[in-house]
Automatic annotation (TrEMBL):
It comes from the Bacteria. InterPro entries: GlpE_sulfurtransferase (IPR050229), Rhodanese-like_dom (IPR001763), Rhodanese-like_dom_sf (IPR036873). CDD domains: RHOD. PROSITE patterns: RHODANESE_3. The lineage of its organism: Bacteria, Pseudomonadati, Pseudomonadota, Alphaproteobacteria, Hyphomicrobiales. Pfam families: Rhodanese. Residues 24-114 form the Rhodanese domain. This is Rhodanese-like domain-containing protein. It comes from Ciceribacter thiooxidans. SUPFAM superfamilies: Rhodanese/Cell cycle control phosphatase. Gene3D superfamilies: Rhodanese-like domain (3.40.250.10).
């Protein structure tokens, strides 16, 4: 990327799955950027989901609505953070990344369709939501 094409972006907003559930109940859209095979194994349930795989994101990002809050999710929050910054670069200001992704969503017992298991390695991701103690962290 050339110097002329760079934009200074603020730090992306990030929320845990518990906060994501609240945002979805308030009308936010969940944008799942996992690949088709991942979504076929396990997908988010009981919420409106738009799936645009990260591999097709540069071609399809304009499908994401600008007129509502969007929470971007992936397996562990890394791919979704990339998509979040991409959308911010494109001028979206109502976009938030879901930290720890579907791994933490499943760990919290939130509804899914398909195989609701996580690997022990993936499940070791901490919340990072700012909770002061391990006991408080359990709420996320």
């Amino acid at each position: 990327m050339t110097e002329a094409a760079r934009k200074e972006l603020p730090e992306a907003r990030e929320v845990c799955p518990t906060t994501t559930r609240r945002l979805l109940a308030e009308g936010a859209l969940l944008l799942d950027v996992r690949e088709k095979d991942e979504v076929e194994r396990v997908s988010f349930a009981d919420c409106e989901v738009l799936n645009i795989p990260l591999s097709a994101f540069e071609q399809r990002w304009s499908e994401v609505p600008r007129n509502r809050d969007v929470v971007v999710a992936s397996t562990n929050g890394e791919a979704s953070l990339k998509a979040t910054y991409f959308l911010m670069y494109e001028g979206y200001d109502r976009v938030t990344n879901m930290k720890q992704g579907v791994v933490r969503w499943i760990e919290r017992g939130f509804p899914v369709i398909g195989e609701a298991s996580v690997s022990s390695t993936a499940a070791e991701v901490g919340c990072g939501c700012g909770a002061a103690s391990p006991k408080a962290d359990a709420r996320c």
